Amino acid sequence: MHVQQVQLPSSLPQIKEVRLLNKIRPKQTS
Questions:
Q1: C-alpha 17: how far from its chain's center?
Q2: Tens digits of residue pLDDT in 1-30
Q3: Highest taxon of the source (predicted)?
Q4: How far apart are CA 23 and CA 18, in angstroms?
Q5: Which residues contact 21 (CB under 8 A, 6 or more apart)?
Q6: pLDDT value at residue 20
Q7: CA–centroid distance for 9 within its chain
Q8: pLDDT for the residue numbered 28
Q9: What are phi and psi of 28, to 5 degrees?
Q10: What does the pLDDT read at residue 13?
């Protein structure tokens, strides 16, 4: 669980980028 907590913050920036890409490219709704 400790590893997951450390991966959470690392995944946060990726999710933000994916959300931005989704907003700019609504066609890519994977």
A1: 6
A2: 555 555 656 667 777 888 888 887 766 555
A3: Eukaryota
A4: 9
A5: 28
A6: 83
A7: 10
A8: 54
A9: -90, 75
A10: 76
